[in-house]
Design brief:
Shape: globular
Order of helices and strands: EHEEEE
Distance between the termini: 26 Å
Strand content: 35-45%
Strand order of the largest sheet: 2-3-1-4-5
Radius of gyration: 11 Å
Number of helices: 1
Number of strands: 5
Helix content: 10-25%
Largest sheet: 5 strands, antiparallel
């Protein structure tokens, strides 16, 4: 599946990207799609069988699943 993780900080996005790629997951950092909100404006797009919440940095905002061009919230981090 295709997932998008959003973050409160750029550093959190970078740390999550490194964690995911370290686990062998295809991931890339990119600007957040306009229809999703993010504090820092950067997200991580990745492909995985599961959302992989355990790889998210503590400043992760949310994880969305991309299905047929729409985004569905699958996980929300601590505020």
């Amino acid at each position: 599946m295709n997932y998008i993780a959003t973050f409160h900080t750029h550093l959190a996005a970078l740390r999550t990207h490194r964690a995911l790629t370290g686990q062998g997951v295809r991931a890339r950092m990119a600007p957040v799609p306009r229809c999703l909100s993010s504090s820092c404006g950067v997200c991580v797009f990745y492909q995985s069988e599961t959302p992989r919440q355990e790889a998210m940095d503590g400043d992760a905002e949310a994880i969305y699943c991309e299905e047929d061009g729409a985004y569905r919230l699958v996980w929300r981090g601590e505020p």
